[in-house]
Write a structure and sequence with these properties.
- It is built from twelve helices and no strands.
- The longest helix has about 40 residues.
- The protein is globular, with a radius of gyration of 25 Å.
Amino acid sequence: MGLKSADYWSSRRYLYLFVGPAILSLVLIVILPTIFLWYVSFTSYDLGMGWEKRAFVGLRNFYFLISGQDREFWPSVVVSLKYMVISTIIEFILGFAIAILFNRKMIGKRLWMSCLLVPLTVTPAVVALMWKLMYNTEYGVINYILGFLGISVNWLSSSMALISVIIVDVWQWTPFVALILYAGLQALPQEPYEASMVDGASSLQVFRYITLPMMRPMITIAILLRSIDALKVFDTVYGLTQGGPGNATELLSLHIYRLGFQHTGWIGRSSAAAIVLLLLTTALSTYLLKALRRDYKAGEGI
């Protein structure tokens, strides 16, 4: 009994030894800053005043945002949701098409896959600068090519800016979705496909009734990761348009930055807006994780 107890505590000690640094990092990097963010969101802290002059204001900062006193808050939420939904849908469709293409036998597959990885290796600041040059109305390469067709587009105008930043997001992150879905396709069992060939199922029927149901967990993971990332994107859009022209591309993340550091210095209100973004991201991830769990349970029944 004594030896068993000693072994138990010895194993627990090793467990704490290995897990402890990860838990400590999580507390220092995630939990404490989040608690501090919540605290600041309930104060009147302003960059123009000293930290010691802050006052507890309760939910006043949240009321300022939600009641419409901040006229740019709700438009920025709408722009963020549009950006997330449109970019995620396009990336999923293109990524799935690319994954299916790579899942077939083709010449130079490794070379094409290496090319596919290039956008993922470029930092967002460089991506923004590169596309800003390409979008230039006068000497950009895109308008130069379109010029042969007699077309000239002001890509960063108020009517085109949101579409332009979505195109950049699609260019950079479609390969990421394609790789996730390609890995899923590679892991699918072959028995259902062999049985469908015996039954004489068409390609469309195989895709509809075999591939899609078995791929649902991987599809959910891809959508989960991309939608969360699109909802909180900042650097690429800031580098391209800085939220403009006007507030055409002012996502919620850019509005938080403007509110806290660029225009007014209202850190308390900016923190409240950041809490709203955090709640949106948490709600979305919770919903998709539940869907993922449901898909896994359904997959066990296939």
